[in-house]
UniProtKB/TrEMBL annotation:
This is Importin-5. SUPFAM superfamilies: ARM repeat (SSF48371). It comes from the Eukaryota. It is found in: Cytoplasm. InterPro entries: ARM-like, ARM-type_fold, Importin_beta, Importin_rep_4. One of its GO terms (cellular component) is cytoplasm. GO terms for biological process: protein import into nucleus. Residues 1-21 are annotated as: Disordered. It comes from Glycine soja. It holds the Pfam family Importin_rep_4.
Length: 256
């Protein structure tokens, strides 16, 4: 497996870029083996091998350990539920990993475990899992990790009672709104170029600068570069004199 730069911004077309054919085959084999042999056979092997992989210096080994954990969950359901504390500890320990593809694999494991080991996972370990996912939603430097975390919050929540979700609701909804605003506003800045959209673009410029100030410098940095490129291209292009973005450009650029 290679860390292809295209992976980090891929949505669908290149979502598996950098992976070899053996990677996909290995996933399918693990899934089938765990279903055929069961947890009593597979889990002891995993308990012996996976911890060493999770602390290996190579990011590929840490990544594949989490992928393997997710793949065997369905077939090893009963045994993994009995050892749920150990399973959750392995996953949560990897959330701060320095490599984004390991963090993505970690979130992917939570997605699979939320389905296969729910609602036990949600009832017993929401205090660790939901804050970890919420923290990953702040990873503005790695939008694919960020988006996956937001998506997996939904998977995890499907097996949650309102009583479990309530303490986390305000924080998670606030983060989701920020992500939605940034996505929509950046899209408007890039695509609303007709004269009929002058006011819309002006409002978007103002809004995105306010969002940037609200989330803070560090969180907005990854988006700031793209926004500045758009603003600079607007300045270079020949705007009409009645385009309100010609006035707002300077102020919003300064804010960004």
């Amino acid at each position: 497996m290679e860390d292809d730069p295209a992976w980090h911004s891929a949505e669908t077309k290149d979502e598996d870029v950098g992976e070899t054919s053996n990677y996909s085959v290995g996933q399918k084999c693990l899934d089938r083996l765990s279903i055929s042999l069961g947890g009593n056979t597979i889990v002891p092997v995993g308990s012996e091998q996976l911890p060493a992989y999770l602390v290996a210096p190579e990011w590929q080994k840490r990544h594949v350990a989490l992928i393997a954990l997710a793949q065997i969950a369905e077939g090893c359901l009963k045994v993994m539920i009995k050892n749920l504390e150990q399973v959750v500890a392995m996953v949560l320990t990897s959330f701060p990993d320095q490599h984004p593809r390991v963090r993505w694999a970690d979130i992917n494991a939570i997605e699979q475990l939320s389905t296969d080991l729910g609602p036990d996972l949600q009832v017993k370990y929401h205090q660790g899992v939901l804050p970890a996912l919420a923290g990953a939603m702040d990873d503005f430097q790695n939008p694919r990790v960020q988006a996956h975390a937001a998506s997996v919050v939904l998977n995890f929540s499907e097996n949650c009672t309102p009583h479990i979700l309530m303490p986390y609701l305000d924080g998670i909804v606030s983060k989701l709104l920020v992500l939605l605003q940034l996505y929509l506003i950046k899209s408007i800045l890039v695509n609303a170029i007709d004269k009929s959209n002058h006011m819309l673009r002006a409002a978007s410029m103002e809004c995105i600068s306010l969002v940037g100030m609200a989330v803070g410098k560090e969180k907005f940095m990854a988006n700031a570069n793209q926004v500045m490129e758009v603003l600079m291209s607007l300045q270079v292009s020949q705007m009409e004199t009645d385009d309100p973005t010609t006035i707002g450009y300077g102020l919003d650029s300064a804010n960004v």
